[in-house]
Amino acid sequence: MNKQNKYLDPTGPLGLIIIFLVLALAPLFVGPFYVRLLAVGILYGVAAVGFNILFGYTGLLSFGHAMFWGMGAYGVAIGLEKFGLGFIGSFTLAICILLGLSVVTGFLSLRHTKIYFAMLTLAFGQLVYAIILKWRDLTGGDEGIYGIPRPLETVTNYYYLIIAISIVILLLIWRLLNSPLGVAFQTIRDNPYRAEVLGYPVKRVRMLSYVVSGLVTGVAGMLYSPLQGAITPESLYWTFSAAIVFMAVLGGPRIFIGPFIGGIVYVLLMNYAMDITEYWMMAMGIMLALLIYLLPQGIVGGIFDYIKKARGETK
Amino acid sequence: MKPVLIGKGLKKYFGNVRAVDGVFIQINPGEVVGLIGPNGAGKTTLLNLLSGVLKPDSGEVLVYVGGKKEYINVAGWNPAKITGLGVARAFQIPNIFENMTVIDNLRAAIIASKKLYGKTLRFYDRINDVEREAEKLLKLFGLIEKAESIAGGLGHGERKILDIALALTVKPKILMLDEPTAGLSAAEKPLIIDLIRKLKNEINAAILVVEHDLDVVFTVSERVVVMHEGKILAEGTPEEIKSDIRVREAYFGEVL
Q: Helices A238-251 and A258-276 meet at what angle, rounded to 10?
Protein backbone atom coordinates (compact mmCIF):
# COMPACT_ATOMS: atom_id res chain seq x y z
CA MET A 1 0.00 0.00 0.00
CA ASN A 2 1.09 3.59 -0.30
CA LYS A 3 3.09 4.35 2.79
CA GLN A 4 4.64 7.68 1.91
CA ASN A 5 4.89 10.27 4.63
CA LYS A 6 1.42 11.63 5.26
CA TYR A 7 2.72 15.10 6.07
CA LEU A 8 3.91 15.39 2.45
CA ASP A 9 0.31 15.27 1.21
CA PRO A 10 -0.18 18.30 -1.08
CA THR A 11 -3.87 18.38 -0.11
CA GLY A 12 -2.88 18.39 3.56
CA PRO A 13 0.05 19.79 5.58
CA LEU A 14 2.42 20.33 2.66
CA GLY A 15 -0.19 22.33 0.77
CA LEU A 16 -1.07 24.30 3.88
CA ILE A 17 2.54 25.19 4.61
CA ILE A 18 3.08 26.39 1.05
CA ILE A 19 -0.08 28.53 1.11
CA PHE A 20 0.79 30.02 4.48
CA LEU A 21 4.36 30.77 3.35
CA VAL A 22 2.92 32.78 0.47
CA LEU A 23 0.44 34.47 2.81
CA ALA A 24 3.18 35.29 5.32
CA LEU A 25 5.23 36.99 2.61
CA ALA A 26 2.26 38.98 1.28
CA PRO A 27 2.62 42.02 3.63
CA LEU A 28 6.03 42.67 2.04
CA PHE A 29 4.35 43.28 -1.31
CA VAL A 30 0.86 44.66 -0.64
CA GLY A 31 -0.51 47.51 1.45
CA PRO A 32 -2.46 47.32 4.71
CA PHE A 33 -5.81 47.24 2.90
CA TYR A 34 -4.92 43.95 1.24
CA VAL A 35 -3.33 42.58 4.39
CA ARG A 36 -6.63 43.10 6.17
CA LEU A 37 -8.47 41.56 3.23
CA LEU A 38 -6.22 38.49 3.34
CA ALA A 39 -6.72 38.24 7.10
CA VAL A 40 -10.48 38.14 6.54
CA GLY A 41 -9.91 35.55 3.80
CA ILE A 42 -7.86 33.33 6.13
CA LEU A 43 -10.56 33.53 8.81
CA TYR A 44 -13.32 32.77 6.27
CA GLY A 45 -11.16 29.85 5.13
CA VAL A 46 -10.78 28.47 8.66
CA ALA A 47 -14.53 28.91 9.21
CA ALA A 48 -15.25 27.02 5.98
CA VAL A 49 -12.86 24.19 6.96
CA GLY A 50 -14.71 23.97 10.26
CA PHE A 51 -18.06 23.85 8.45
CA ASN A 52 -16.67 21.19 6.14
CA ILE A 53 -15.90 18.80 9.02
CA LEU A 54 -19.64 18.47 9.27
CA PHE A 55 -20.53 18.82 5.58
CA GLY A 56 -17.75 17.22 3.55
CA TYR A 57 -16.70 14.60 6.08
CA THR A 58 -19.80 13.74 8.09
CA GLY A 59 -22.38 14.44 5.38
CA LEU A 60 -24.48 16.94 7.31
CA LEU A 61 -25.32 20.25 5.66
CA SER A 62 -25.58 22.99 8.26
CA PHE A 63 -27.31 26.19 7.25
CA GLY A 64 -26.60 27.78 10.60
CA HIS A 65 -22.85 28.13 10.81
CA ALA A 66 -23.04 31.92 10.83
CA MET A 67 -24.39 31.36 14.34
CA PHE A 68 -21.03 29.98 15.47
CA TRP A 69 -19.02 32.54 13.57
CA GLY A 70 -21.14 35.40 14.91
CA MET A 71 -21.33 34.17 18.47
CA GLY A 72 -17.54 33.73 18.53
CA ALA A 73 -17.19 37.30 17.30
CA TYR A 74 -19.81 38.68 19.69
CA GLY A 75 -18.48 36.66 22.62
CA VAL A 76 -15.06 38.28 22.27
CA ALA A 77 -16.53 41.73 21.57
CA ILE A 78 -18.85 41.62 24.59
CA GLY A 79 -16.08 40.28 26.83
CA LEU A 80 -13.71 43.06 25.80
CA GLU A 81 -16.10 46.00 25.50
CA LYS A 82 -18.89 45.29 27.97
CA PHE A 83 -17.20 43.28 30.70
CA GLY A 84 -13.61 44.49 30.34
CA LEU A 85 -12.34 40.91 30.59
CA GLY A 86 -9.11 41.39 28.63
CA PHE A 87 -8.10 39.18 25.72
CA ILE A 88 -7.58 35.89 27.56
CA GLY A 89 -10.78 36.30 29.55
CA SER A 90 -12.84 37.32 26.51
CA PHE A 91 -11.56 34.42 24.41
CA THR A 92 -12.34 32.02 27.25
CA LEU A 93 -15.84 33.50 27.54
CA ALA A 94 -16.39 33.07 23.80
CA ILE A 95 -15.19 29.45 23.88
CA CYS A 96 -17.61 28.70 26.72
CA ILE A 97 -20.50 30.30 24.81
CA LEU A 98 -19.60 28.31 21.70
CA LEU A 99 -19.39 25.04 23.61
CA GLY A 100 -22.77 25.56 25.22
CA LEU A 101 -24.35 26.72 21.97
CA SER A 102 -22.99 23.80 19.94
CA VAL A 103 -24.01 21.17 22.50
CA VAL A 104 -27.55 22.53 22.81
CA THR A 105 -28.22 23.18 19.10
CA GLY A 106 -26.46 19.94 18.20
CA PHE A 107 -28.62 17.95 20.58
CA LEU A 108 -31.76 19.51 19.11
CA SER A 109 -30.78 19.55 15.41
CA LEU A 110 -29.21 16.09 15.18
CA ARG A 111 -32.53 14.41 15.82
CA HIS A 112 -32.79 14.65 12.05
CA THR A 113 -30.48 14.41 9.07
CA LYS A 114 -30.49 15.68 5.48
CA ILE A 115 -32.72 18.66 4.62
CA TYR A 116 -34.52 18.50 7.99
CA PHE A 117 -31.22 18.92 9.77
CA ALA A 118 -30.35 21.84 7.47
CA MET A 119 -33.69 23.54 8.22
CA LEU A 120 -33.28 23.07 11.97
CA THR A 121 -29.81 24.62 11.93
CA LEU A 122 -31.20 27.47 9.84
CA ALA A 123 -33.96 28.00 12.39
CA PHE A 124 -31.58 28.02 15.37
CA GLY A 125 -29.24 30.35 13.52
CA GLN A 126 -32.05 32.83 12.92
CA LEU A 127 -33.21 32.48 16.50
CA VAL A 128 -29.77 33.44 17.80
CA TYR A 129 -29.65 36.29 15.26
CA ALA A 130 -32.96 37.62 16.59
CA ILE A 131 -31.74 37.46 20.19
CA ILE A 132 -28.55 39.36 19.39
CA LEU A 133 -30.50 41.93 17.37
CA LYS A 134 -33.00 42.59 20.16
CA TRP A 135 -30.76 42.41 23.24
CA ARG A 136 -29.67 46.01 22.76
CA ASP A 137 -28.12 46.62 26.18
CA LEU A 138 -25.61 43.86 25.68
CA THR A 139 -25.14 43.79 21.91
CA GLY A 140 -25.91 47.28 20.70
CA GLY A 141 -28.79 45.98 18.59
CA ASP A 142 -28.45 46.59 14.85
CA GLU A 143 -25.64 49.11 15.45
CA GLY A 144 -23.45 46.35 16.80
CA ILE A 145 -20.35 46.86 18.96
CA TYR A 146 -17.60 49.32 17.99
CA GLY A 147 -14.11 50.16 19.18
CA ILE A 148 -13.05 46.60 19.91
CA PRO A 149 -9.31 46.62 20.71
CA ARG A 150 -6.92 44.50 18.68
CA PRO A 151 -4.11 42.39 20.18
CA LEU A 152 -0.65 43.44 18.91
CA GLU A 153 -2.12 46.77 17.76
CA THR A 154 -1.30 46.94 14.02
CA VAL A 155 -3.20 45.00 11.40
CA THR A 156 0.00 43.45 10.08
CA ASN A 157 1.09 42.18 13.51
CA TYR A 158 -2.36 40.80 14.14
CA TYR A 159 -2.28 39.23 10.66
CA TYR A 160 0.72 37.16 11.71
CA LEU A 161 -1.04 36.12 14.91
CA ILE A 162 -4.01 34.98 12.80
CA ILE A 163 -1.66 33.02 10.54
CA ALA A 164 0.02 31.33 13.51
CA ILE A 165 -3.25 30.35 15.17
CA SER A 166 -4.81 29.24 11.87
CA ILE A 167 -1.89 26.94 11.02
CA VAL A 168 -2.15 25.24 14.39
CA ILE A 169 -5.93 24.85 14.14
CA LEU A 170 -5.86 23.53 10.57
CA LEU A 171 -3.09 21.03 11.31
CA LEU A 172 -5.00 19.77 14.34
CA ILE A 173 -8.16 19.34 12.24
CA TRP A 174 -6.20 17.56 9.53
CA ARG A 175 -4.76 15.23 12.16
CA LEU A 176 -8.24 14.56 13.55
CA LEU A 177 -9.74 13.89 10.12
CA ASN A 178 -6.95 11.41 9.37
CA SER A 179 -7.48 9.57 12.63
CA PRO A 180 -9.88 6.65 13.11
CA LEU A 181 -12.46 9.21 14.22
CA GLY A 182 -12.17 11.01 10.87
CA VAL A 183 -12.87 7.70 9.15
CA ALA A 184 -15.91 7.27 11.39
CA PHE A 185 -17.16 10.66 10.13
CA GLN A 186 -16.80 9.51 6.53
CA THR A 187 -18.54 6.18 7.01
CA ILE A 188 -21.50 8.07 8.44
CA ARG A 189 -21.48 10.43 5.47
CA ASP A 190 -21.48 7.57 2.96
CA ASN A 191 -23.71 5.02 4.66
CA PRO A 192 -24.92 5.66 8.20
CA TYR A 193 -26.87 2.40 8.27
CA ARG A 194 -23.84 0.27 7.47
CA ALA A 195 -21.70 2.33 9.86
CA GLU A 196 -24.12 1.53 12.64
CA VAL A 197 -24.28 -2.18 11.79
CA LEU A 198 -20.48 -2.33 11.81
CA GLY A 199 -20.50 -0.93 15.33
CA TYR A 200 -19.93 2.81 15.04
CA PRO A 201 -21.89 4.82 17.64
CA VAL A 202 -23.39 6.95 14.86
CA LYS A 203 -25.28 9.44 17.00
CA ARG A 204 -22.37 10.17 19.31
CA VAL A 205 -19.98 10.56 16.41
CA ARG A 206 -22.35 12.98 14.66
CA MET A 207 -22.59 15.05 17.83
CA LEU A 208 -18.83 15.13 18.21
CA SER A 209 -18.42 16.24 14.61
CA TYR A 210 -21.03 18.96 15.11
CA VAL A 211 -19.38 20.36 18.22
CA VAL A 212 -15.87 20.34 16.73
CA SER A 213 -17.18 21.91 13.52
CA GLY A 214 -19.04 24.66 15.39
CA LEU A 215 -16.06 25.37 17.62
CA VAL A 216 -13.65 25.78 14.71
CA THR A 217 -15.97 28.13 12.83
CA GLY A 218 -16.58 29.97 16.09
CA VAL A 219 -12.86 30.39 16.81
CA ALA A 220 -12.42 31.95 13.37
CA GLY A 221 -15.22 34.37 14.30
CA MET A 222 -13.50 35.09 17.62
CA LEU A 223 -10.42 36.31 15.77
CA TYR A 224 -12.58 38.35 13.38
CA SER A 225 -14.06 41.03 15.65
CA PRO A 226 -10.69 42.30 17.01
CA LEU A 227 -9.39 42.39 13.41
CA GLN A 228 -12.24 44.65 12.25
CA GLY A 229 -12.64 46.50 15.54
CA ALA A 230 -16.40 46.23 15.09
CA ILE A 231 -19.12 43.62 14.79
CA THR A 232 -22.72 43.87 13.57
CA PRO A 233 -25.61 41.36 13.58
CA GLU A 234 -25.14 40.81 9.85
CA SER A 235 -22.38 38.37 10.72
CA LEU A 236 -25.07 36.16 12.28
CA TYR A 237 -27.60 36.48 9.48
CA TRP A 238 -28.45 33.37 7.48
CA THR A 239 -26.98 34.77 4.26
CA PHE A 240 -23.57 34.45 5.86
CA SER A 241 -24.34 30.79 6.66
CA ALA A 242 -25.00 30.39 2.94
CA ALA A 243 -21.73 32.18 2.16
CA ILE A 244 -19.84 29.66 4.33
CA VAL A 245 -21.54 26.80 2.46
CA PHE A 246 -20.51 28.46 -0.78
CA MET A 247 -16.87 28.87 0.26
CA ALA A 248 -16.65 25.14 1.02
CA VAL A 249 -18.28 24.12 -2.27
CA LEU A 250 -16.25 26.68 -4.20
CA GLY A 251 -12.95 25.36 -2.86
CA GLY A 252 -13.89 21.69 -2.98
CA PRO A 253 -15.47 19.89 -0.02
CA ARG A 254 -13.84 16.55 -0.84
CA ILE A 255 -10.35 17.90 -0.30
CA PHE A 256 -9.03 18.97 3.06
CA ILE A 257 -7.60 22.35 2.02
CA GLY A 258 -10.38 23.01 -0.52
CA PRO A 259 -12.67 25.07 1.75
CA PHE A 260 -9.70 27.06 3.06
CA ILE A 261 -8.79 28.12 -0.47
CA GLY A 262 -12.51 28.69 -1.08
CA GLY A 263 -12.66 31.19 1.78
CA ILE A 264 -9.72 33.20 0.50
CA VAL A 265 -10.93 33.16 -3.11
CA TYR A 266 -14.41 34.21 -1.96
CA VAL A 267 -13.05 37.31 -0.23
CA LEU A 268 -10.81 38.24 -3.14
CA LEU A 269 -13.66 37.80 -5.62
CA MET A 270 -15.96 39.89 -3.46
CA ASN A 271 -13.38 42.66 -3.34
CA TYR A 272 -12.85 42.48 -7.09
CA ALA A 273 -16.60 42.60 -7.72
CA MET A 274 -16.90 45.66 -5.51
CA ASP A 275 -14.11 47.33 -7.46
CA ILE A 276 -15.66 46.88 -10.87
CA THR A 277 -19.31 47.69 -10.17
CA GLU A 278 -21.68 48.98 -7.56
CA TYR A 279 -23.90 46.02 -8.47
CA TRP A 280 -21.20 43.87 -6.98
CA MET A 281 -23.55 41.17 -5.74
CA MET A 282 -24.67 40.50 -9.29
CA ALA A 283 -21.09 40.38 -10.56
CA MET A 284 -20.21 38.08 -7.66
CA GLY A 285 -23.14 35.81 -8.47
CA ILE A 286 -22.09 35.50 -12.10
CA MET A 287 -18.47 34.75 -11.22
CA LEU A 288 -19.44 32.16 -8.63
CA ALA A 289 -21.91 30.47 -10.98
CA LEU A 290 -19.24 30.31 -13.69
CA LEU A 291 -16.74 28.76 -11.31
CA ILE A 292 -19.22 26.07 -10.29
CA TYR A 293 -20.03 25.30 -13.93
CA LEU A 294 -16.38 25.10 -14.90
CA LEU A 295 -15.12 23.33 -11.76
CA PRO A 296 -17.91 21.23 -10.26
CA GLN A 297 -15.43 19.59 -7.88
CA GLY A 298 -14.41 23.01 -6.59
CA ILE A 299 -11.25 24.94 -7.38
CA VAL A 300 -8.85 22.65 -5.54
CA GLY A 301 -10.77 19.53 -6.56
CA GLY A 302 -10.57 20.66 -10.18
CA ILE A 303 -6.84 21.28 -9.98
CA PHE A 304 -6.13 17.84 -8.52
CA ASP A 305 -8.41 16.14 -11.04
CA TYR A 306 -6.45 17.88 -13.77
CA ILE A 307 -3.10 16.77 -12.31
CA LYS A 308 -4.35 13.19 -12.02
CA LYS A 309 -5.51 13.21 -15.63
CA ALA A 310 -2.24 14.70 -16.78
CA ARG A 311 -0.41 11.90 -14.99
CA GLY A 312 -2.70 9.40 -16.65
CA GLU A 313 -4.16 8.09 -13.41
CA THR A 314 -7.79 7.13 -13.35
CA LYS A 315 -10.01 8.47 -10.65
CA MET B 1 -21.53 -28.91 18.74
CA LYS B 2 -24.47 -26.69 19.48
CA PRO B 3 -26.17 -24.70 16.71
CA VAL B 4 -24.84 -21.13 16.45
CA LEU B 5 -28.20 -19.66 15.57
CA ILE B 6 -31.75 -20.86 16.13
CA GLY B 7 -34.95 -19.25 14.92
CA LYS B 8 -37.90 -20.58 16.92
CA GLY B 9 -41.56 -20.14 16.00
CA LEU B 10 -40.83 -16.96 14.07
CA LYS B 11 -43.81 -15.04 12.75
CA LYS B 12 -44.01 -11.79 10.83
CA TYR B 13 -47.21 -10.56 9.19
CA PHE B 14 -47.55 -7.51 6.98
CA GLY B 15 -51.28 -6.80 7.17
CA ASN B 16 -52.87 -9.91 5.72
CA VAL B 17 -49.67 -11.19 4.23
CA ARG B 18 -48.10 -13.93 6.32
CA ALA B 19 -44.52 -13.29 5.21
CA VAL B 20 -43.02 -15.60 7.83
CA ASP B 21 -45.50 -17.90 9.49
CA GLY B 22 -44.10 -20.04 12.27
CA VAL B 23 -40.60 -20.92 11.09
CA PHE B 24 -38.10 -23.08 12.93
CA ILE B 25 -34.57 -22.95 11.56
CA GLN B 26 -31.18 -23.79 12.99
CA ILE B 27 -27.67 -23.25 11.71
CA ASN B 28 -24.83 -25.48 12.89
CA PRO B 29 -21.22 -24.31 13.28
CA GLY B 30 -19.30 -24.13 10.03
CA GLU B 31 -22.04 -25.40 7.73
CA VAL B 32 -23.22 -23.75 4.53
CA VAL B 33 -27.01 -23.60 4.42
CA GLY B 34 -28.93 -22.52 1.34
CA LEU B 35 -32.31 -20.89 1.82
CA ILE B 36 -34.48 -21.05 -1.30
CA GLY B 37 -38.09 -20.61 -2.29
CA PRO B 38 -40.19 -18.99 -4.99
CA ASN B 39 -40.75 -15.24 -5.07
CA GLY B 40 -42.61 -14.02 -2.02
CA ALA B 41 -41.85 -17.14 0.00
CA GLY B 42 -40.53 -15.04 2.87
CA LYS B 43 -36.81 -15.71 2.52
CA THR B 44 -35.64 -12.13 2.82
CA THR B 45 -38.11 -11.43 5.62
CA LEU B 46 -36.73 -14.41 7.54
CA LEU B 47 -33.21 -13.10 7.02
CA ASN B 48 -34.33 -9.68 8.24
CA LEU B 49 -35.79 -11.25 11.38
CA LEU B 50 -32.62 -13.22 12.07
CA SER B 51 -30.35 -10.20 11.57
CA GLY B 52 -32.48 -7.68 13.47
CA VAL B 53 -33.55 -5.52 10.55
CA LEU B 54 -37.15 -6.48 11.37
CA LYS B 55 -38.70 -7.36 14.69
CA PRO B 56 -40.69 -10.61 14.74
CA ASP B 57 -44.36 -10.51 15.79
CA SER B 58 -43.61 -13.56 17.86
CA GLY B 59 -40.89 -16.17 18.24
CA GLU B 60 -37.28 -16.17 19.34
CA VAL B 61 -33.93 -15.63 17.68
CA LEU B 62 -31.34 -17.44 19.76
CA VAL B 63 -27.64 -16.74 19.30
CA TYR B 64 -25.11 -19.11 20.86
CA VAL B 65 -22.87 -17.23 23.30
CA GLY B 66 -21.39 -20.13 25.27
CA GLY B 67 -20.97 -20.16 29.03
CA LYS B 68 -23.74 -21.11 31.39
CA LYS B 69 -26.39 -19.15 29.56
CA GLU B 70 -25.59 -20.81 26.23
CA TYR B 71 -28.11 -18.74 24.23
CA ILE B 72 -29.35 -15.17 24.17
CA ASN B 73 -32.71 -14.27 22.63
CA VAL B 74 -31.97 -11.31 20.39
CA ALA B 75 -35.42 -10.90 18.82
CA GLY B 76 -36.11 -7.17 18.59
CA TRP B 77 -32.50 -6.10 19.12
CA ASN B 78 -31.07 -3.62 16.65
CA PRO B 79 -28.75 -4.94 13.93
CA ALA B 80 -25.63 -3.35 15.41
CA LYS B 81 -26.04 -5.18 18.71
CA ILE B 82 -26.76 -8.49 16.99
CA THR B 83 -23.68 -8.00 14.81
CA GLY B 84 -21.72 -7.55 18.02
CA LEU B 85 -22.62 -11.14 18.98
CA GLY B 86 -21.08 -12.45 15.76
CA VAL B 87 -24.08 -12.49 13.44
CA ALA B 88 -22.98 -10.65 10.31
CA ARG B 89 -24.85 -9.95 7.15
CA ALA B 90 -24.07 -8.92 3.61
CA PHE B 91 -26.74 -7.13 1.64
CA GLN B 92 -28.61 -7.75 -1.59
CA ILE B 93 -27.89 -4.19 -2.67
CA PRO B 94 -24.30 -3.60 -1.62
CA ASN B 95 -24.06 -1.44 1.48
CA ILE B 96 -20.59 0.00 1.11
CA PHE B 97 -18.89 3.36 1.65
CA GLU B 98 -19.14 4.70 -1.89
CA ASN B 99 -16.78 7.67 -1.66
CA MET B 100 -13.98 5.85 0.11
CA THR B 101 -11.33 3.63 -1.45
CA VAL B 102 -11.70 -0.14 -1.21
CA ILE B 103 -8.96 -0.45 1.39
CA ASP B 104 -10.39 2.46 3.40
CA ASN B 105 -13.76 0.67 3.40
CA LEU B 106 -12.04 -2.33 4.97
CA ARG B 107 -9.99 -0.19 7.37
CA ALA B 108 -13.14 1.59 8.50
CA ALA B 109 -14.91 -1.70 9.16
CA ILE B 110 -11.93 -3.17 11.02
CA ILE B 111 -11.55 -0.01 13.10
CA ALA B 112 -15.21 -0.32 14.07
CA SER B 113 -14.95 -3.99 14.98
CA LYS B 114 -11.87 -3.36 17.13
CA LYS B 115 -13.50 -0.26 18.66
CA LEU B 116 -10.51 1.90 17.74
CA TYR B 117 -12.51 4.94 16.61
CA GLY B 118 -11.60 6.91 19.74
CA LYS B 119 -7.88 6.78 18.95
CA THR B 120 -7.66 10.35 17.70
CA LEU B 121 -3.88 10.52 18.07
CA ARG B 122 -3.23 7.77 15.53
CA PHE B 123 -3.38 7.88 11.75
CA TYR B 124 -6.20 5.59 10.64
CA ASP B 125 -4.03 3.95 7.98
CA ARG B 126 -0.96 3.43 10.16
CA ILE B 127 -2.35 0.98 12.71
CA ASN B 128 -0.47 -2.30 12.28
CA ASP B 129 -3.27 -4.66 13.33
CA VAL B 130 -5.72 -2.93 11.03
CA GLU B 131 -3.32 -2.94 8.08
CA ARG B 132 -2.53 -6.62 8.51
CA GLU B 133 -6.20 -7.57 8.58
CA ALA B 134 -7.11 -5.31 5.69
CA GLU B 135 -4.40 -6.86 3.54
CA LYS B 136 -5.53 -10.35 4.47
CA LEU B 137 -9.08 -9.54 3.43
CA LEU B 138 -7.94 -7.90 0.19
CA LYS B 139 -6.07 -11.09 -0.69
CA LEU B 140 -8.87 -13.43 0.35
CA PHE B 141 -11.39 -11.51 -1.74
CA GLY B 142 -9.08 -10.86 -4.70
CA LEU B 143 -9.35 -7.10 -4.34
CA ILE B 144 -5.64 -6.28 -4.04
CA GLU B 145 -5.48 -4.53 -7.41
CA LYS B 146 -8.55 -2.46 -6.59
CA ALA B 147 -7.31 -1.45 -3.13
CA GLU B 148 -6.87 2.21 -4.00
CA SER B 149 -9.95 2.51 -6.24
CA ILE B 150 -12.99 4.43 -5.07
CA ALA B 151 -15.59 1.85 -4.03
CA GLY B 152 -18.43 3.64 -5.85
CA GLY B 153 -16.61 3.14 -9.16
CA LEU B 154 -16.37 -0.66 -8.89
CA GLY B 155 -18.44 -3.07 -10.97
CA HIS B 156 -21.53 -4.61 -9.43
CA GLY B 157 -19.84 -7.95 -8.72
CA GLU B 158 -16.89 -6.30 -7.00
CA ARG B 159 -19.21 -4.15 -4.93
CA LYS B 160 -20.99 -7.26 -3.72
CA ILE B 161 -17.68 -8.89 -2.89
CA LEU B 162 -16.60 -5.80 -0.94
CA ASP B 163 -19.91 -5.85 0.91
CA ILE B 164 -19.27 -9.44 1.99
CA ALA B 165 -15.71 -8.51 3.00
CA LEU B 166 -17.09 -5.72 5.23
CA ALA B 167 -19.44 -8.19 6.91
CA LEU B 168 -16.49 -10.49 7.62
CA THR B 169 -14.51 -7.88 9.56
CA VAL B 170 -16.54 -8.58 12.69
CA LYS B 171 -15.18 -12.18 12.71
CA PRO B 172 -18.69 -13.61 12.68
CA LYS B 173 -19.88 -16.99 13.89
CA ILE B 174 -22.43 -16.87 11.15
CA LEU B 175 -22.44 -14.93 7.90
CA MET B 176 -25.71 -14.32 6.08
CA LEU B 177 -25.59 -13.60 2.37
CA ASP B 178 -28.71 -12.06 0.85
CA GLU B 179 -28.90 -13.03 -2.84
CA PRO B 180 -25.17 -12.80 -3.47
CA THR B 181 -25.55 -13.40 -7.21
CA ALA B 182 -28.62 -11.23 -7.86
CA GLY B 183 -27.94 -8.72 -10.61
CA LEU B 184 -24.67 -10.35 -11.61
CA SER B 185 -23.80 -11.44 -15.14
CA ALA B 186 -23.34 -15.13 -15.92
CA ALA B 187 -19.61 -14.49 -16.05
CA GLU B 188 -19.56 -13.02 -12.53
CA LYS B 189 -21.54 -15.80 -10.83
CA PRO B 190 -18.67 -18.32 -10.66
CA LEU B 191 -16.66 -15.66 -8.80
CA ILE B 192 -19.22 -15.68 -6.03
CA ILE B 193 -19.43 -19.49 -5.96
CA ASP B 194 -15.66 -19.70 -5.66
CA LEU B 195 -15.71 -17.06 -2.98
CA ILE B 196 -18.28 -18.88 -0.84
CA ARG B 197 -16.25 -22.09 -1.11
CA LYS B 198 -13.08 -20.25 -0.19
CA LEU B 199 -14.79 -18.61 2.76
CA LYS B 200 -15.96 -21.97 4.01
CA ASN B 201 -12.35 -23.17 4.14
CA GLU B 202 -10.70 -20.00 5.34
CA ILE B 203 -13.03 -18.61 7.94
CA ASN B 204 -14.52 -20.26 10.93
CA ALA B 205 -18.13 -19.31 10.30
CA ALA B 206 -21.39 -20.88 9.26
CA ILE B 207 -22.86 -19.37 6.12
CA LEU B 208 -26.54 -18.88 5.36
CA VAL B 209 -27.16 -18.10 1.70
CA VAL B 210 -30.48 -16.77 0.48
CA GLU B 211 -30.44 -17.22 -3.25
CA HIS B 212 -32.67 -17.23 -6.29
CA ASP B 213 -30.30 -19.10 -8.51
CA LEU B 214 -30.82 -22.79 -7.69
CA ASP B 215 -27.63 -23.88 -9.44
CA VAL B 216 -25.62 -21.66 -7.13
CA VAL B 217 -27.40 -22.96 -4.02
CA PHE B 218 -27.08 -26.61 -4.94
CA THR B 219 -23.39 -26.14 -5.74
CA VAL B 220 -22.30 -24.44 -2.52
CA SER B 221 -24.71 -25.70 0.17
CA GLU B 222 -24.39 -28.71 2.42
CA ARG B 223 -27.99 -28.37 3.51
CA VAL B 224 -30.87 -26.68 1.74
CA VAL B 225 -33.97 -25.22 3.37
CA VAL B 226 -36.98 -24.53 1.15
CA MET B 227 -39.56 -21.91 2.10
CA HIS B 228 -43.02 -21.57 0.63
CA GLU B 229 -45.72 -19.10 1.65
CA GLY B 230 -44.00 -18.20 4.88
CA LYS B 231 -43.41 -21.76 6.04
CA ILE B 232 -40.58 -24.26 5.74
CA LEU B 233 -41.61 -26.71 3.06
CA ALA B 234 -38.63 -29.04 2.97
CA GLU B 235 -35.13 -29.45 4.27
CA GLY B 236 -32.28 -31.74 3.26
CA THR B 237 -29.15 -32.25 1.22
CA PRO B 238 -29.08 -30.71 -2.26
CA GLU B 239 -29.75 -34.16 -3.78
CA GLU B 240 -32.78 -34.76 -1.57
CA ILE B 241 -34.21 -31.37 -2.34
CA LYS B 242 -33.67 -31.71 -6.08
CA SER B 243 -35.76 -34.87 -6.11
CA ASP B 244 -38.43 -33.62 -3.69
CA ILE B 245 -41.75 -33.44 -5.53
CA ARG B 246 -43.19 -30.81 -3.14
CA VAL B 247 -40.35 -28.45 -3.97
CA ARG B 248 -41.03 -28.82 -7.68
CA GLU B 249 -44.69 -28.13 -7.11
CA ALA B 250 -43.88 -25.00 -5.12
CA TYR B 251 -41.64 -23.73 -7.85
CA PHE B 252 -43.46 -24.81 -10.96
CA GLY B 253 -47.04 -25.26 -9.83
CA GLU B 254 -49.04 -28.46 -9.76
CA VAL B 255 -49.18 -28.84 -13.52
CA LEU B 256 -45.99 -30.84 -13.43
A: 110
Q: Do A191 and B84 touch (CB under 8 A)?
A: no
Pairing outcome for strands B231-236 and B70-73: unpaired
Cα gap A258→A65, rounded to integer Å: 18
pTM across the whole model:
0.91
Torsion of CA B128, B134, B136, B137, to 10 degrees: 160
Taking contacts as CB-CB distances below 8 angstroms, the residues of chain A near B97 are: 186-187, 190-191, 194
Per CB-CB distance under 8 Å, the chain B contacts of A186 are 97, 99-100, 104, 108
CB B77 within 8 A of CB B69: no
- Give chain B positions within 8 Å (CB) of A182: 124
Angle between helices A155-177 and A202-228 (to 10 degrees): 170
Q: ipTM of the predicted structure?
A: 0.90
Q: Report yes or no: A292 and A249 within 8 Å, Cβ to Cβ.
A: yes
Domain boundaries, chain A: 11-236
Amino acid at A160: Y
pLDDT in tens, B43-83: 999 999 999 989 999 999 999 998 888 999 999 898 888 99
Task: Give the whole-angstrom CA distance, residue B10 versus residue B35.
Answer: 15
